[in-house]
C-alpha cells in the first residue's frame, strides 16, 4: 500500500513524508518528464522512494487511480472529465501543460481538404476518449458538421501512423511523435488545439492526485509542485538545455524535441492560481468550468452517459494553502 | 424352473457366498429389464465353479453382484453369513481384459493390494516374489503392462488377485482374449494353483470344454431373464489329470452334449442322479 | 431416482447464490460500483443499449458486425485449412512444405503480429478478418491432419480391395473418416477465434462487440463492459451448442467406431 | 530407404526458399522496408537488442520477465485447476457448483475482462498474472475432468476389490489414471496462455517480450516486432518440446493402455 | 522342410494364386526380421483353404501379401498367372474386426464396391438386395454399423466382400471376436455360401475345430520364420453335413490330434498317404 503505515511515525518531523510515492507519468515533453529526467524529485525527497510508472493513455491512468496503484498521475483533460464523472477519488493539483500545436488535425495534401468543411465524407482517425477526440468533435460541431457525415475512426497513434503510410486514412487528429511523422509524409495542419483554445475550447494535460494521499501528505504535493516549478523555470531560462535533457526520453533529436515543447504551453504554479485556471480557495478558477463544459459536450455527443454539475468539478480541484 | 441338484460336499460348513431368491433388474430409460431371476446359489469354500451360459444371459451381472459392484434388486446376498458390504479384499476379481494399472510395473501392480492392506515392506516383498514366481513372470517383474503380451498380462492380473489372499476369486471369461495355445497352458496353471491352495474360484466361461477341464462343479444359466438351469458336480474332475487328453475320457462326449443341449435348451434339465447314471453308463 | 436432480439444483443454487451476494453487497454499497456495478445497474445499461444502441449503432449491429467478421474468417479458414490438412495427412511431402510455417506462427500471440497485419492489409475489415483467420486456421489444419493420421490403415485397405482408386480413397474414405476430428477442430477453432475477437476490433473499428467493450473501458463504463461480457459469453455458448448439435445430427457414429 | 529423407529436405528447402525470396525482394527494394524489413536489418536489430537491450533492459530480462509471469500463472493454475478438475470428475455435485462459472468465462476474449482485472487487482504483476491464470485455468480444469471421466469403471472396481478405500482410490487410481489427459491439458493450456502474453503486458508494463513488441509497434519498428515474434515463436516451441519430452519420460505408458 | 502333399484337384486349370519360393522380411529399426520362408503355395479356384498356425507365425503376413497390401521380399507372387498389381476388386478381404465404413449404412457399405465398379443404380440395387438377404440383414439394411451387434457387423462385412464378386476371398480370423453360438451359426452360413457359389476362400484361423468344419483343404504354418508344414485335403469335408455333430465323426479325433501335434511340432509331418491311411483306419 502506498501510504505506508497508518500509525503516526515516531518522529514528528517525518509525519508528513510518505515512504513511497508512485507516479504514473506519460511521455509528453513537460515539466514532470523534465524533473524525472533530471532526477530532481529524488533529490528533493531523499527519504521517499519514488517509483515512476509509464502509461500511454489516460484510460490506464484512470484505471490505476481507481485500483489505487498510483498516487500521482497525468491525464488529459478529457479522461479527467470522464474520471470525475465516474467519481474517481482524485483531484487536480497541477496543469502540466495547455495543449497548443502539439495536437493537431493533419490531412493529406493530396486529398484537397482545405477547410474543416471539406472533411465530410472523408476518413479521419483519432484515439477515442482522448483530448484530440474531444477537439475534433468540437471542431466539427462548431463547423456544423454531423460526425456521421464522415467516418471517424478509433485508432491508437501507432495505428494511425501505419494507416497513414498505407494511405488508408485522409486525416488524423493526433499528437507527437505520430504528428511529426505524418506531417513529414505529405501532411498539412488543418487545425490545431491552439486554434481551438483561442476559441475557448481548452485542452490540457493535468496532474492528478489520489484524494487520500492529498489529505494525508499536503506538504509533499506542495513541494512536488515546487520541483515542477523549478523545471519550468529551467526551461524558460534555457530551452535548449531542457530539450537536450528530454530528447532521449522522447527518442528524438534536440531540435525535434524543442519543436514539440513549443507546441505545449507550460504554466508555473503561480500562473495556474490565476482565475483563468485553477484559481484558489477564495476565488474559483475557470478551469472547473472548462471541465464542466467538456463534460457537457461529451454528454451531448452521447459519449458519456451523464456529466455532473459544476460544483463536482470545482471540488475536484485541489487548492493548497 | 430352477434346478439345483448339487449336493453340498462340505455339508457341515456354512457356504461362503449365499444367494437366496435373488433378482436383478436394470433400468434403461423408462424400461425395466429383468436380467436374473430366482437365483439360489451357495458357493462353498474350495469350490471351483464354472458358469456356462449363452451371451446376454446375465453371467457377468451375477459376478458383479457377488463382487459387490452392483446391488441385487431383491433377494438376499450374503458373504460369509453377513450382508454384502461392497467390494473388498476378501473377494478377488479377474476381468476378461487384464485390467492392470498401466503406470505400475508388474511387481508394483501385485504390490498394490498388499499396500492397501498396509503390510510391511519385507512381507510385501516376500509375497510378491512368491506369486510372481508362481505365474512365471519373475524375469518380467519390472516391466510395465504395455510391454507384456496378452497372456503375460492375464497371468499378472491373476497373481495380483491371489497376492491379497482373497477368500474367493471371481473370474469373468479371463482367457477369452488369449490364443488357443497360451490359453491351454494358462488353464493348466490355474488348475494346478487351485489344487495347491484350495482357493474358492467362481469362473465364467462360454467355452464348454474349458468348463469341463477346470471345474469341479458346473452351473449353467439360461433364458431371459436368466435362471440356473443346471448345477452339477463335474464327474470327470478327478480323472482329468490322469488322461493325456481329457477329450478322450469316457463320459466326456456325454457330458459335453448334456451341457450344450442344456445351453441350447433342447433337452429338459436332468436330475443329478440321472446325469450320474448316464455318465456311468458311458464309462 | 431423485439423485439425478441434485447437480442441476446445485448449479442453479450456485448461480443464484452469487447473484444474491452480489446484489446484497451492491445494495449496502460494500463494493465500489465502479469495480462491480450492481445487477440493477447492469440491467439498466442493458435495456438502454438495447433500446438506444451504443455510440450510434444499435446493439444488434454490433453483434452482427462481430459475427460477420468471425464467420467470414472462419469460413475462409474452413475452406483452406481443412483441404490443406487432409492433403498434409495424405502426403508427407505436402505436409513437410507447409508445417514449418504453421508451427512457427501457431504459438504466437495474435497481438504480436497484429500491427504487421495492419501495415500489410490496412485498417479495414481485411486485417481484422486476417487476424481471426490466422487464429482459426491452425486448429482446423491440425485437426484435419490428425484426423487423417488416425484413420485405421485397414479401412483404406478395405476400400482398395473393393476396387477404389487412390483419388476415390481420398474423397470417399479419407474425407468422411476425418470428419469427427474435423468437427472437434471446428469447435476448438471457433473457441480460439472467438477469444481473439476483441483484439481484432482494437484497431479502427467503430462497431462490434469487442470494440464496444474496449470503448466502454476508455470511459470507465464497467456496466457496459460487464453487459458486453455477458452477451459475448451467451453468444459463444450458443455458437458452440449449434456446432455440437449439428455434429450430433451429421455424425451419429462419432466415437462409436 | 531414401524416402524418409524427402520430407525434412522439403521443409528446409521451403524455409530457405522463403528467406531467399524475402532477401531478393528486400535487396531490390521491391517491398516497403517499413512493411517487411530485410533479413539483414532484422539481424542487425537482433544483435543490437542482444548487446544493448531494449529500452533500458537487457533482452534476457524481457524474456525472463515474461517467463516469470507465464510460469507463475501457470503453476498457480496447475495447483488449483487440476485438483478442482479431478474432484469435479469424481463428484457430480462439486462439478455442478463450479462448472457454470467456468463455462461462462471460458469462451471470453481475455481482453474483454482485462480492464476489470486491472480495476480489481491493479496495474502490477497481479493483474497480468491473473489474466494469464484465467487463460491457463480452463484447459487444465477440463482436461483433468475429462481424464477422470475417461477412467474405465473396471479399473476403479479392481482397486476396490484389492482393498482400496475411497480416498485411496482417488490418490492411487484417479490421479495417475488422469495424468495422460492432464498432460494434454498442460500443452493446450500453455499454448493458450502463451497467446495471451502480449495482451497481459499491455498495461503499465516496462518489460517483457510482449511489451517489447507492443512498444516497438508504437514506433513502427517493424524490425523489432519481427525479431520479437521470432524470439516468441522459438521460445514457445522450446517450451512445448520440453513438456513433450517430460511427458514421454514420465508417462511411457501413455496411449498404450 | 516344407511339405506339400496336396494333390491338385483340378490339375488341368492353372492355380488362381500362386506363390513360389516366397520370403517375407520386416525391417524393425536396424534389425531384419524374417517372418516367412520358402513359401510355395497354389490356391485353385473353388478351394476353401483354412490356414492354421500358432500366433506370430506369419499367417496375417501371408494374407496381406496375397491381398497386395505388402510386397514379398523375394520370390514370385502371381494372381491369375500375372504379377500382383496391388489390392483390387478381384481379391476380397474380410478382416478380424468387421471394419465397415462407420458413416455408411449396411446397404451403403455393401454398395461401396459396386459404386467403385461404376455399376448402374438398378443393377446395384439388385445385387445389394441379393447379398443382404443372403446374410439375413434385410431388416437392418438402413442401420449404421454402430447400431449392429458384432455378429451382424461381420455378416455385413462378408456381404460387402461378396457383392463385388471377387475371384477369391481372404479372411483373417473373421470369427474370433464372436461368441460361440453366433460363431457356429455364421460358420454354417459361410459353408453354405461356399457350396452355393463355389467361391475360392482363403481362411485364417487358430481354431482347429473351425478349420475341420469349414475347409476342404487345411494348411498349417509353423516355426520362426514360418514355413508350410502341412498341406492336406480335409478327409471329413464331405461328411460334415451329414453328421449331427461333426465331432462324433470317425476320424475326427485323429485329424484333430494330427493338426494339434503338427502345430505343437511334436510329431514329424506325415505324408498325405500316411494321413489318409491313419484316418481310414479310424473309420
Ligand atoms: N448396466 C446395464 N444397464 C442396462 N442393461 C444392462 C447393463 N449391464 C448388462 N445389461 C443387460 O443385461 C443383460 C445381461 O448382461 P450380462 O453382461 O450379465 O450378460 P453375460 O451373460 O455376461 O453375456 P456375455 O456372455 O455376452 O458377456 C444383457 O441383456 C445386457 O444388455
Ligand atoms: N509391419 C510389421 N513390422 C514389423 N514386424 C511385423 C510387422 N507385421 C508383423 N510383424 C511381425 O511378423 C511376425 C508375424 O506376424 P503375423 O501378424 O503375420 O502373425 P500371425 O500368424 O498372423 O499371428 P496371430 O495369430 O497372432 O495373428 C510377428 O513376429 C510380428 O511381430
Ligand atoms: Mg459377460
Ligand atoms: Mg494374424
UniProtKB/TrEMBL annotation, chains B, E:
Molecular function GO terms recorded: ATP binding
Organism domain of life: Bacteria
Pfam families noted in UniProt: ABC_tran
CDD domains tied to this protein: ABC_NrtD_SsuB_transporters
Domain ABC transporter: 17-248
KW Protein transport (keyword) present: no
Gene3D superfamilies on file: P-loop containing nucleotide triphosphate hydrolases
Keyword Transport: yes
Keywords associated with the record: ATP-binding, Nucleotide-binding, Translocase, Transport
The protein, known as: ABC transporter ATP-binding protein
Species annotation: Metabacillus fastidiosus
Lineage per the UniProt record: Bacteria, Bacillati, Bacillota, Bacilli, Bacillales
TrEMBL record, chains C, D:
Alphabetized PANTHER family for the sequence: ALKANE SULFONATE ABC TRANSPORTER-RELATED, MEMBRANE SUBUNIT, TAURINE TRANSPORT SYSTEM PERMEASE PROTEIN TAUC
Subcellular location as annotated: Cell membrane
TM annotation in the entry: 9-30, 67-92, 104-123, 129-148, 192-212, 224-243
Gene3D superfamilies assigned to the protein according to its UniProt record, in alphabetical order: MetI-like (1.10.3720.10)
Record's keyword annotation contains Nucleotidyltransferase: no
Keyword terms, alphabetized: Cell membrane, Membrane, Transmembrane, Transmembrane helix, Transport
Membrane disposition: Multi-pass membrane protein
Organism of provenance: Metabacillus fastidiosus
ABC transmembrane type-1 domain sequence ranges: 63-243
Similarity-based family: Belongs to the binding-protein-dependent transport system permease family.
Pfam families documented for this protein: BPD_transp_1
Protein name: ABC transporter permease subunit
Amino acid at each position: 500500500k502506498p501510504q505506508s503505515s497508518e500509525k503516526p511515525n515516531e518522529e514528528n518531523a517525518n509525519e508528513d513524508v510518505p515512504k513511497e510515492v508512485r507516479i504514473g507519468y506519460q511521455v509528453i515533453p513537460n515539466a514532470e518528464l523534465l524533473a524525472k529526467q533530471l532526477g530532481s524529485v529524488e533529490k528533493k525527497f531523499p527519504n521517499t522512494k519514488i517509483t515512476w510508472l509509464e502509461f500511454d493513455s489516460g484510460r490506464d491512468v484512470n484505471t490505476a487511480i481507481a485500483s489505487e496503484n498510483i498516487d500521482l498521475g497525468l491525464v488529459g483533460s478529457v479522461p479527467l472529465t470522464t474520471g470525475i464523472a465516474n467519481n474517481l477519488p482524485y483531484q487536480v493539483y497541477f496543469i502540466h501543460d495547455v495543449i497548443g500545436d502539439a495536437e493537431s488535425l493533419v490531412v493529406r495534401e493530396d486529398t484537397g481538404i482545405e477547410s474543416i468543411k471539406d472533411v465530410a465524407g472523408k476518413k479521419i482517425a483519432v484515439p477515442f476518449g482522448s483530448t484530440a477526440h474531444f477537439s475534433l468533435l468540437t471542431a466539427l460541431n462548431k463547423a456544423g458538421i454531423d460526425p456521421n457525415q464522415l467516418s471517424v475512426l478509433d485508432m491508437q497513434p501507432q495505428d494511425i501512423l501505419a494507416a497513414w503510410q498505407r494511405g488508408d486514412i485522409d486525416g488524423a487528429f493526433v499528437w507527437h511523435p505520430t504528428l511529426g511523422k505524418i506531417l513529414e509524409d505529405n501532411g498539412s495542419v488543418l487545425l490545431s488545439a491552439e486554434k481551438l483554445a483561442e476559441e475557448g475550447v481548452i485542452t490540457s494535460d493535468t496532474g492528478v492526485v489520489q484524494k487520500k494521499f492529498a489529505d494525508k501528505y499536503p506538504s509533499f504535493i506542495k513541494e512536488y509542485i515546487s520541483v515542477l516549478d523549478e523545471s519550468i523555470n529551467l526551461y524558460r531560462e534555457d530551452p535548449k538545455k531542457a530539450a537536450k535533457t528530454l530528447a532521449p526520453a522522447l527518442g528524438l533529436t534536440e531540435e525535434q524535441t524543442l519543436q514539440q515543447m513549443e507546441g505545449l504551453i507550460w504554466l508555473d504554479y503561480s500562473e495556474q492560481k490565476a482565475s483563468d485556471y485553477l484559481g484558489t480557495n477564495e476565488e474559483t478558477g475557470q478551469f472547473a468550468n472548462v471541465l464542466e463544459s467538456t463534460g457537457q459536450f461529451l454528454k451531448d455527443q452521447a459519449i458519456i452517459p451523464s456529466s455532473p454539475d459544476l460544483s463536482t468539478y470545482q471540488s475536484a480541484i485541489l487548492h493548497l494553502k | 424352473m430352477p434346478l439345483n441338484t448339487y449336493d453340498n460336499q462340505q455339508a457341515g460348513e456354512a457356504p461362503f457366498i449365499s444367494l437366496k431368491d435373488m433378482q436383478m433388474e436394470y433400468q434403461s430409460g423408462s424400461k425395466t429389464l429383468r436380467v436374473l431371476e430366482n437365483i439360489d446359489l451357495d458357493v462353498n469354500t474350495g469350490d471351483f465353479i464354472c458358469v456356462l451360459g449363452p451371451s446376454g444371459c446375465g453371467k457377468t451381472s451375477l459376478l458383479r453382484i457377488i463382487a459387490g459392484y452392483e446391488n441385487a434388486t431383491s433377494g438376499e446376498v450374503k458373504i460369509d453369513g453377513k450382508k454384502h458390504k461392497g467390494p473388498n479384499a476378501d473377494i478377488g476379481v479377474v476381468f476378461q481384459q487384464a485390467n492392470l494399472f498401466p503406470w505400475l510395473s508388474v511387481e508394483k501392480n501385485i504390490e498394490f493390494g498388499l499396500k492397501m492392506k498396509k503390510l510391511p515392506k519385507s512381507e510385501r516383498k516376500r509375497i510378491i516374489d512368491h506369486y510372481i514366481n508362481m505365474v512365471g513372470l519373475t524375469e518380467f517383474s519390472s516391466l510395465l503392462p504395455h510391454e507384456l503380451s496378452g497372456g503375460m498380462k492375464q497371468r499378472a492380473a491373476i497373481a495380483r488377485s491371489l497376492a491379497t489372499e482373497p477368500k474367493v476369486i471371481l473370474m469373468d471369461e479371463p482367457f477369452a482374449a488369449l490364443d488357443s495355445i497360451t490359453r491351454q497352458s494358462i488353464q493348466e496353471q490355474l488348475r494346478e494353483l487351485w489344487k495347491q491352495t484350495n482357493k474358492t474360484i467362481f469362473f465364467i466361461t462360454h467355452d464348454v470344454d474349458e468348463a469341463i477341464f477346470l471345474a469341479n462343479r458346473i452351473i449353467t444359466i439360461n433364458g431371459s431373464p436368466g435362471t440356473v438351469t443346471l448345477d452339477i458336480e463335474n464327474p470327470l474332475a478327478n480323472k482329468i489329470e490322469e488322461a493325456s487328453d481329457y477329450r478322450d475320457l469316457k463320459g466326456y462326449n456325454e457330458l459335453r452334449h448334456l451341457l450344450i443341449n442344456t445351453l441350447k435348451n433342447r433337452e429338459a434339465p436332468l436330475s443329478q442322479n440321472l446325469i450320474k447314471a448316464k455318465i456311468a453308463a458311458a464309462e | 431416482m431423485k439423485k439425478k436432480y441434485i447437480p442441476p439444483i446445485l448449479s442453479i443454487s450456485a448461480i443464484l447464490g452469487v447473484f444474491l451476494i452480489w446484489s446484497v453487497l451492491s445494495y449496502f454499497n460494500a463494493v465500489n460500483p465502479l469495480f462491480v456495478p450492481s445487477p440493477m445497474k447492469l440491467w439498466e445499461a442493458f435495456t438502454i443499449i438495447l433500446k438506444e444502441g451504443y455510440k450510434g449503432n444499435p446493439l444488434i449491429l454490433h453483434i452482427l458486425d462481430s459475427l460477420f467478421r468471425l464467420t467470414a474468417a472462419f469460413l475462409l479458414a474452413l475452406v483452406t485449412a481443412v483441404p490443406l490438412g487432409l492433403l498434409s495427412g495424405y502426403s508427407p511431402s505436402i505436409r513437410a512444405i507447409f508445417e514449418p510455417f504453421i508451427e512457427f506462427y501457431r504459438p504466437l500471440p495474435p497481438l504480436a503480429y497484429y500491427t504487421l497485419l495492419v501495415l500489410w492489409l490496412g485498417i479495414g475489415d481485411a486485417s481484422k478478418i486476417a487476424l481471426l483467420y490466422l487464429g482459426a486456421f491452425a486448429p482446423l489444419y491440425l485437426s484435419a491432419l490428425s484426423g487423417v493420421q488416425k484413420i485405421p490403415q485397414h479401412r483404406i485397405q478395405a476400400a482398395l480391395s473393393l476396387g477404389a482408386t487412390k483419388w476415390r480413397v481420398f474423397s470417399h474414405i479419407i474425407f468422411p473418416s476425418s470428419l469427427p476430428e474435423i468437427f472437434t477442430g471446428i469447435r476448438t477453432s471457433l473457441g480460439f477465434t472467438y477469444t481473439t475477437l476483441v483484439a481484432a476490433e482494437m484497431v479502427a473499428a467503430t462497431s462490434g462487440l469487442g470494440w464496444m467493450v474496449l470503448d466502454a473501458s476508455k470511459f470507465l463504463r464497467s456496466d457496459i463492459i460487464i453487459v458486453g461480457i455477458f452477451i459475448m459469453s451467451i453468444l459463444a455458448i450458443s455458437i458452440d451448442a449449434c456446432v455440437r448439435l449439428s455434429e450430433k445430427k451429421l455424425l451419429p457414429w462419432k466415437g462409436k467406431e
